[in-house]
Amino acid sequence: MGFYMAPEFQMADLNQHAEPFRAVSAMLQFNQHLAIGYSFFNSADHMMMYRNDMGPRIPISLRAGAFKIEYALKPASKLHVSFPLLVGRSIAESGYGVMPLAEKNMAYYDSLGGNLPYMPDYYQFGQSRFVLIQPGMQVEANVFKIIKVYLGMHYRFSIPLQTGYYKHMYVMPSEPLHPKFVSGLVLNTGIKIGLFEKSVKRK
Protein backbone atom coordinates (compact mmCIF):
# COMPACT_ATOMS: atom_id res chain seq x y z
CA MET A 1 0.00 0.00 0.00
CA GLY A 2 1.21 3.52 -0.72
CA PHE A 3 0.21 7.08 -1.43
CA TYR A 4 1.26 9.93 -3.70
CA MET A 5 0.50 13.49 -4.78
CA ALA A 6 0.34 14.40 -8.46
CA PRO A 7 0.44 18.07 -9.52
CA GLU A 8 -0.01 18.55 -13.25
CA PHE A 9 -0.55 21.02 -16.09
CA GLN A 10 -3.34 20.56 -18.63
CA MET A 11 -4.29 21.98 -22.01
CA ALA A 12 -7.97 21.47 -22.79
CA ASP A 13 -9.72 21.95 -26.12
CA LEU A 14 -12.95 23.63 -24.98
CA ASN A 15 -15.33 25.03 -27.59
CA GLN A 16 -12.48 24.94 -30.15
CA HIS A 17 -10.15 26.91 -27.87
CA ALA A 18 -6.99 25.55 -26.23
CA GLU A 19 -7.10 26.60 -22.58
CA PRO A 20 -4.57 26.02 -19.74
CA PHE A 21 -5.54 24.29 -16.50
CA ARG A 22 -3.72 23.38 -13.31
CA ALA A 23 -4.58 20.26 -11.33
CA VAL A 24 -3.55 18.14 -8.37
CA SER A 25 -4.50 14.64 -7.26
CA ALA A 26 -4.10 12.90 -3.88
CA MET A 27 -4.11 9.13 -4.27
CA LEU A 28 -3.97 5.97 -2.16
CA GLN A 29 -2.29 3.07 -3.92
CA PHE A 30 -3.65 -0.31 -2.79
CA ASN A 31 -1.24 -2.34 -4.87
CA GLN A 32 1.16 -1.58 -7.69
CA HIS A 33 -1.69 -1.49 -10.18
CA LEU A 34 -4.68 0.23 -8.55
CA ALA A 35 -4.91 3.73 -7.04
CA ILE A 36 -8.00 5.57 -5.75
CA GLY A 37 -8.25 9.18 -4.62
CA TYR A 38 -9.49 12.67 -5.35
CA SER A 39 -8.53 15.21 -8.00
CA PHE A 40 -9.08 18.95 -8.26
CA PHE A 41 -8.45 21.25 -11.21
CA ASN A 42 -9.28 24.79 -12.28
CA SER A 43 -8.67 27.05 -15.25
CA ALA A 44 -5.37 28.89 -15.01
CA ASP A 45 -6.99 32.08 -16.31
CA HIS A 46 -10.38 33.36 -17.44
CA MET A 47 -11.18 31.83 -20.83
CA MET A 48 -12.50 34.39 -23.31
CA MET A 49 -15.11 32.60 -25.41
CA TYR A 50 -17.99 33.48 -27.68
CA ARG A 51 -21.32 32.38 -26.25
CA ASN A 52 -22.60 32.16 -29.84
CA ASP A 53 -21.45 33.20 -33.31
CA MET A 54 -23.02 36.66 -33.10
CA GLY A 55 -22.65 37.56 -29.43
CA PRO A 56 -19.74 39.18 -27.60
CA ARG A 57 -16.94 37.29 -25.94
CA ILE A 58 -17.37 36.55 -22.25
CA PRO A 59 -14.89 35.38 -19.61
CA ILE A 60 -15.51 31.84 -18.36
CA SER A 61 -13.70 30.12 -15.50
CA LEU A 62 -13.99 26.43 -14.73
CA ARG A 63 -13.17 24.40 -11.63
CA ALA A 64 -13.92 20.81 -10.70
CA GLY A 65 -13.49 18.16 -8.05
CA ALA A 66 -13.75 14.47 -8.85
CA PHE A 67 -13.14 11.02 -7.46
CA LYS A 68 -10.35 9.34 -9.36
CA ILE A 69 -9.50 5.71 -9.99
CA GLU A 70 -6.41 4.70 -11.93
CA TYR A 71 -5.19 1.33 -13.14
CA ALA A 72 -1.61 0.80 -14.33
CA LEU A 73 -0.30 -1.96 -16.61
CA LYS A 74 3.18 -3.32 -15.75
CA PRO A 75 3.89 -0.47 -13.27
CA ALA A 76 7.32 -1.90 -12.40
CA SER A 77 8.53 -1.33 -15.98
CA LYS A 78 10.59 1.77 -16.64
CA LEU A 79 7.96 2.91 -19.14
CA HIS A 80 4.33 1.84 -18.76
CA VAL A 81 0.75 3.01 -19.28
CA SER A 82 -2.11 3.79 -16.90
CA PHE A 83 -5.82 4.43 -17.36
CA PRO A 84 -7.32 7.10 -15.07
CA LEU A 85 -11.06 7.76 -14.76
CA LEU A 86 -12.52 10.86 -13.07
CA VAL A 87 -16.15 11.18 -11.99
CA GLY A 88 -17.29 14.29 -10.18
CA ARG A 89 -18.76 17.75 -10.54
CA SER A 90 -17.55 20.86 -12.36
CA ILE A 91 -18.65 24.47 -11.99
CA ALA A 92 -18.38 26.97 -14.83
CA GLU A 93 -18.71 30.65 -13.98
CA SER A 94 -19.25 33.37 -16.55
CA GLY A 95 -19.49 37.11 -16.24
CA TYR A 96 -18.80 40.30 -18.11
CA GLY A 97 -18.64 43.99 -17.45
CA VAL A 98 -18.77 46.58 -20.23
CA MET A 99 -17.28 44.23 -22.85
CA PRO A 100 -20.47 44.12 -24.99
CA LEU A 101 -20.63 47.93 -25.07
CA ALA A 102 -16.96 48.21 -25.94
CA GLU A 103 -17.20 45.90 -28.92
CA LYS A 104 -19.81 48.27 -30.35
CA ASN A 105 -17.61 51.29 -29.68
CA MET A 106 -14.04 50.49 -30.63
CA ALA A 107 -12.95 54.11 -30.21
CA TYR A 108 -13.84 53.91 -26.51
CA TYR A 109 -12.09 50.56 -26.27
CA ASP A 110 -8.90 51.98 -27.84
CA SER A 111 -9.00 55.02 -25.56
CA LEU A 112 -8.62 52.65 -22.61
CA GLY A 113 -5.59 51.01 -24.16
CA GLY A 114 -7.48 47.80 -24.84
CA ASN A 115 -8.18 47.22 -21.15
CA LEU A 116 -11.68 47.54 -19.79
CA PRO A 117 -12.60 47.94 -16.13
CA TYR A 118 -15.34 45.65 -14.82
CA MET A 119 -18.10 48.08 -13.86
CA PRO A 120 -20.61 46.88 -11.23
CA ASP A 121 -23.54 48.61 -12.98
CA TYR A 122 -23.01 46.46 -16.05
CA TYR A 123 -21.96 43.23 -14.42
CA GLN A 124 -23.63 39.84 -14.73
CA PHE A 125 -22.53 36.66 -13.04
CA GLY A 126 -23.66 33.20 -14.13
CA GLN A 127 -22.92 29.77 -12.73
CA SER A 128 -23.53 26.43 -14.43
CA ARG A 129 -22.91 23.04 -12.82
CA PHE A 130 -22.11 19.84 -14.65
CA VAL A 131 -21.52 16.17 -13.93
CA LEU A 132 -17.94 15.46 -15.02
CA ILE A 133 -16.82 12.15 -16.54
CA GLN A 134 -13.25 12.01 -17.82
CA PRO A 135 -11.61 8.78 -19.05
CA GLY A 136 -8.08 8.80 -20.36
CA MET A 137 -4.71 7.14 -20.89
CA GLN A 138 -1.25 8.14 -19.63
CA VAL A 139 2.30 7.08 -20.45
CA GLU A 140 4.43 7.02 -17.29
CA ALA A 141 8.14 6.77 -16.61
CA ASN A 142 9.68 5.60 -13.33
CA VAL A 143 12.40 8.19 -12.69
CA PHE A 144 13.27 7.49 -9.05
CA LYS A 145 11.78 5.26 -6.38
CA ILE A 146 9.51 8.06 -5.20
CA ILE A 147 9.06 9.99 -8.47
CA LYS A 148 7.21 9.26 -11.71
CA VAL A 149 6.54 11.59 -14.63
CA TYR A 150 3.72 11.20 -17.12
CA LEU A 151 2.03 12.45 -20.29
CA GLY A 152 -1.61 11.78 -21.00
CA MET A 153 -4.62 12.27 -23.23
CA HIS A 154 -8.21 12.35 -21.96
CA TYR A 155 -11.70 13.40 -22.98
CA ARG A 156 -13.84 15.50 -20.68
CA PHE A 157 -17.60 14.83 -20.88
CA SER A 158 -19.98 17.28 -19.17
CA ILE A 159 -23.66 16.64 -18.39
CA PRO A 160 -25.77 19.69 -17.36
CA LEU A 161 -26.79 19.60 -13.71
CA GLN A 162 -27.88 23.06 -12.56
CA THR A 163 -27.73 26.67 -13.73
CA GLY A 164 -28.20 29.89 -11.83
CA TYR A 165 -27.67 33.54 -12.72
CA TYR A 166 -27.22 36.59 -10.52
CA LYS A 167 -27.53 39.95 -12.23
CA HIS A 168 -27.25 43.62 -11.39
CA MET A 169 -28.78 46.69 -13.01
CA TYR A 170 -29.00 47.21 -16.79
CA VAL A 171 -28.12 43.63 -17.66
CA MET A 172 -30.51 41.21 -19.33
CA PRO A 173 -30.46 37.55 -18.21
CA SER A 174 -28.40 35.26 -20.39
CA GLU A 175 -28.87 31.65 -21.45
CA PRO A 176 -27.09 28.81 -19.59
CA LEU A 177 -23.67 27.65 -20.73
CA HIS A 178 -23.79 24.82 -23.24
CA PRO A 179 -21.87 21.63 -22.27
CA LYS A 180 -19.54 22.23 -25.26
CA PHE A 181 -17.94 25.07 -23.28
CA VAL A 182 -16.64 22.60 -20.68
CA SER A 183 -16.26 19.39 -22.73
CA GLY A 184 -13.40 18.36 -24.97
CA LEU A 185 -9.99 16.79 -25.43
CA VAL A 186 -7.49 17.23 -22.58
CA LEU A 187 -3.70 16.82 -22.77
CA ASN A 188 -1.79 16.70 -19.51
CA THR A 189 1.69 16.33 -18.09
CA GLY A 190 2.66 15.97 -14.47
CA ILE A 191 4.71 14.34 -11.77
CA LYS A 192 3.82 11.77 -9.11
CA ILE A 193 5.64 12.06 -5.79
CA GLY A 194 5.10 9.55 -3.01
CA LEU A 195 5.65 6.11 -1.54
CA PHE A 196 4.47 3.70 -4.20
CA GLU A 197 5.42 0.40 -2.53
CA LYS A 198 5.02 1.02 1.19
CA SER A 199 4.56 -2.33 2.91
CA VAL A 200 1.85 -2.88 5.50
CA LYS A 201 2.94 -4.90 8.53
CA ARG A 202 0.52 -7.57 9.64
CA LYS A 203 0.20 -8.52 13.29
How much is the average pLDDT?
Answer: 76
Number of helices: 2
Q: Order the strands across the largest sheet as they lie in space.
A: 1-2-3-5-6-7-8-9
What is the count of structural domains?
A: 1
Model regions low in confidence, pLDDT < 50 over at least 5 residues? 97-109, 116-124, 165-174, 199-203
Sheet of most strands: 8 strands, antiparallel, barrel
Beta-strand residue fraction = over 45%
CATH topology label = Porin
Explain the overall architecture.
It is a single chain. The chain is mainly β and 203 residues long. The protein has helices spanning 99-104, 106-111, and strands spanning 2-14, 17-29, 34-43, 47-50, 57-73, 79-96, 124-144, 147-167, 184-195. The model is unreliable at 97-109, 116-124, 165-174 and 199-203 (pLDDT under 50).
Which helices and strands occur, and which strands form pairs?
Layout: E1 2-14, E2 17-29, E3 34-43, E4 47-50, E5 57-73, E6 79-96, H1 99-104, H2 106-111, E7 124-144, E8 147-167, E9 184-195
Antiparallel strand pairs: 1-2, 1-9, 2-3, 3-5, 4-5, 5-6, 6-7, 7-8, 8-9
Descriptive keywords:
elongated, 64% strand, 8-stranded antiparallel β-barrel, 203 residues, mainly beta
Short characterization:
The chain is mainly beta.
